[in-house]
Amino acid sequence: MSWQVIAAKEFDDAVRSKLLWSLVAVVALVVGLTSLVPLLIPEFDASVLMGLGAATEFAAMLVPIVALVAAYLALAGERESGSIRLLLGLQPARGTVLVGKFVGRSGVVVAGIGLGVVIAGILAWAVYGELPLTAFVGILVLTGALGVAFVGIAIGISAATATRARAMTIGIAAYLGLALLWDLVPQGVHLVVLGGFPTGSVPGWYLLLEGLSPSGAYSALVTAVLSASDPAIPGAEALLGGPVPSYAQWWVFVLVLVAWTTVPLVFGYAVFRRADLN
Amino acid sequence: MPAIQTDGLTKRYGHDVYAVSDLSLTVEEGEVFGFLGPNGAGKSTTIDLLMDFVRPSSGSATVLGYDVQEEAGAVHERVGILPDGYSLYHRLSGRKHVEYAIALKESDDDPDDILERVGLDPDAAARPARTYSKGMSQRLALGMALVGDPDVLILDEPSSGLDPDGIRDIRELARSHADDGGTVFFSSHILSQVEAVCDRVGILSNGRLVAIDTIDGLRDAVGTGATIALVVDAAPSGVDLTDIPGVADVTVTDGVVSATCTEPSSKVEFVDRVRDGGSTVLDIETHEASLEDLFSAYTRPADGRLVVEVDQ
């Protein structure tokens, strides 16, 4: 199967990138250290789950950078350099190329970020003296899924653009909009609809809006995992001050992550399929 | 069945920029076909169209009977391409490149055989491609093109960056590929690089096919023409310069009378006739046409010193 060959080569190629591994090291370091932050706040009855919760706040911002850096040049870079002529000369089916790129780069990102999270987990375990396995595995899987979602976004962008510069511009815009600034959307809507910023409990639609970005969906799912593991950690119900409406259930955010992974890929393919590569 | 056939193939950018215009050409199986033209004539765009890298504005093309767009997979299984303007994967070794090509083409070639055929030694093949010179890159890309023993080999400016040894290797490879029954589509902007190896050549200029013939056919056409230009004090009058046997394409401009002479002896007759017309001949320039002139004549029509007609 050709896409597997391409995926394996992408993995082989990307694992040789020093930039990527520097980023993974940064993720491991930052996530590991932030998991220790609750210990520094005396009022907190710091637990390892709180530590992991704090760490995922940073992961939600850092993982997208790693994924975008790992994948934004996957196709646009090959188009600009011309290596795509060798690749498509050998395998002309552009869908196959796209799938291979996505799988290969996702593999690198999942491996790198997984390693980073495991290192951070070991650090947290050593310091707190415990690590609830289910919650930790849940966070590991979710963090990987967030990485894969942003690889999907990055590959979609890369497929739809012809140059490095444009792929980078759109990639940075996607990062700012989807990872860093998205929280302004529910807050802005709250301000407009209810005349002020949220205090105390929030309406159900607020939770939904917050979780419509990949990083937001990730945070919502992490909250669900942590509060399921330790009822002392506030979940969606506590935030709403009441029952959770069906449109803000955890599975909605799973769908959101899946959509962010696949829709950009499909869109990118639609553009790439018709593109003149010269 | 033709190895490559294009029918009215056209690629237009914007409203009126024609990279390739109404190109109809047939390359038979087993021949080495030289695809000539200056840079920017549309050679690479034609190859991009054959490879489905770009899509035609109109017209169609087949390779070994397969439509290049609808059946790109079948085409690529049977084609090896050394593209122009490619680049390698800098972090991967030469050997990895060949292994990648073998895996993608699902062929059972031995990477070491391929590397040896294109003259890359094992030390070089083990190094990452970013350390390669242009010549080594070209050899590696050629090796990737040879993977899977393709029926049709498309070489786009294969000599660029190669030293004379490399250029000779490419020619020998092209020739032996055709001798084994394969087809070679050899694109170049330098006539001398294809004339030794090509059975036929097509000349492309501004996206249009302006000539297609065997090298011998072109040579015959060239053999019929030498130009003579006489610098005179005044244009000849009262004489007919056009009825001299073996003289054609007479032009009289301010101070220069020129013509194409198909017979050597007609030059003298031509000079005599001009002098009969009352002109004093101040200088005589003659020019034996070469294949290069022919190429120039086709591809630089503004330079009207040589006009040759070739039977198509």
From TrEMBL, chain A:
MF (Gene Ontology): ABC-type transporter activity
Keyword tags: Membrane, Transmembrane, Transmembrane helix
Keyword Lyase part of the UniProt annotation: no
A family per Pfam: ABC2_membrane_2
GO CC terms in record: plasma membrane
Keyword Transmembrane helix: yes
Membrane spanning stretches: 20-41, 47-75, 108-128, 134-155, 167-185, 250-272
Protein name: ABC transporter permease subunit
Organism: Haloferax marinum
Automatic annotation (TrEMBL), chain B:
Every ABC transporter domain range: 4-231
UniProt keyword Transport present: yes
Record has Transport as a keyword: yes
Keywords of this entry: ATP-binding, Nucleotide-binding, Transport
InterPro entries in the record: AAA+_ATPase, ABC_transporter-like_ATP-bd, ABC_transporter-like_CS, P-loop_NTPase
Domain of life: Archaea
GO molecular function, one term: ATP hydrolysis activity
Similarity comment: Belongs to the ABC transporter superfamily.
Name the UniProt record assigns to this protein: ATP-binding cassette domain-containing protein
Organism name: Haloferax marinum
Taxonomic lineage of the native organism: Archaea, Methanobacteriati, Methanobacteriota, Stenosarchaea group, Halobacteria
